[in-house]
Amino acid sequence: MAVDLETKSTPIILEDMSVFYYRQLATSLQDHDLQQKIDHEIKMRDGTAKLLAASKHPAQMLEAAKNLLTSNTRIISYMTELQRRKTAEVMGKNSTSSVAGNQVPCKAKVCVSDIRIPLMWKDTDHFKNKGDHRRYVVFCLLKIGTEIYDTSMVNNVDRSMTDITFDDVIAFNNISHDFECKLEIYCHKLHEDLTIASTSKKLRKKMNDLSGSVGRSVGKRLSGLKDDADIIGNMVLGPRFELMATGSLTLADVDNCIRTYDLQLEPVSEAGSELPLFGHYCCKFSAHPECLREPAGTGFLNLQANSQASLQEDDDLSKWKKYWCVLKNLEMACWSSPTDVDVTQPLFTIPVTKNTQISDADPRTCKRSHTFHLKTVQGEFVSEHTLAAENKEELNKWWEAFQQHLLDQVFWKHACEQPVDMRSASPRKLPLFLRKSSLYEDTPINDRSSYNEEVIDNLQMDEKQLSQMLNTLMGEAKEIRGDTSSTASSSSTGT
Asked: Phi-psi category of 281—alpha, beta or left, where left has phi over 0 and alpha has psi -120 to 50?
């Protein structure tokens, strides 16, 4: 059954046979997670439709229409994902293919907050307080893959406001590095305000009383609903939210401060809303890769006591000391024992970044087996350490851990380097509107072209460095796993 997967306004009508088809598709793919999500959203949609049909208060009707749009959008997203997975299965493609051997880049938590949308009113509307007293209801949808969240709804947006502010904190979990975050702005014009904005209170009361006593169709017109606001199947056509503009965010846009991004304005129908968008929006868009908070490797390693002073090893085992090491957050932290990790600070840390050179030990100068070197040079700072694993299996494990940590840095790029201030996701319901200072005064429209060029150049340079480092590690790992002992090498894996 064909389903219209593209729409710009509510409601979205999903045929029962189409829903049945996608349920069967989920069963054939044994994708119980998506099947449960579809069933849950269908129940939410049906309940919301009934609520919308029974609602009489305008605020209830608007909230129900918003929830109906969100549920339908999620259902369509899940169905599209099922189609994609079925196509991949038929074509024989593996959707979870690895990047390097059996390793894939880590996932991340992505957060969108401090969303502000400037408005551009005419001089006569905003400054002279003349013209039509248009009023709107606005909310946003944010999407990454099949994860879709809605913001709170801002009511009574009129010409006195220079920007729309959302206090929601939207958090996405387990996001891949190649994600695309889409922001969609939906708007509903409060039609009744155009007809009775200048009407006296006494006359307005009479009209409200009239709308409660006359027939259903006339009453709906007076209450702001359109003529087609009736039930079709189990769907209700209530207040219509139209898609006004879209925005797109990727890894290159990640920053730990509020920045300005472009909006793509959508064409508006003749009877649609006329929300005067400025063409930009502001938000804080941050990402926190798992490699910064989850260890890539843990275990005991032996560290040569004077390795920072000299790399001339000998057979004196008294110069070696065993530490419990944890590799994460661009460093390897060392404790005396595993029990100290949660109660004390590490005794010392060894940086493992894009400036780190990792090489296996030279058997001509190092008599101890399973030994390797770490060297980091950053400006005038130089850190050198010689470490040894207990056996070949442990050495392989640590080599894979370093390979994974560098792989994560290759793909997450600058998101691994900048300090991250991740805010907790906001509860589902927040105050509808909190007035702040105008975007016109305190938010410059930055030239993103120059900013992006600089960021892209830096990212390409970093990716080249880390890729070279990663390829060298993979080659040395194959030699380590071989039956024959590795030949003397001092292969550097840095820049």
From this structure: beta
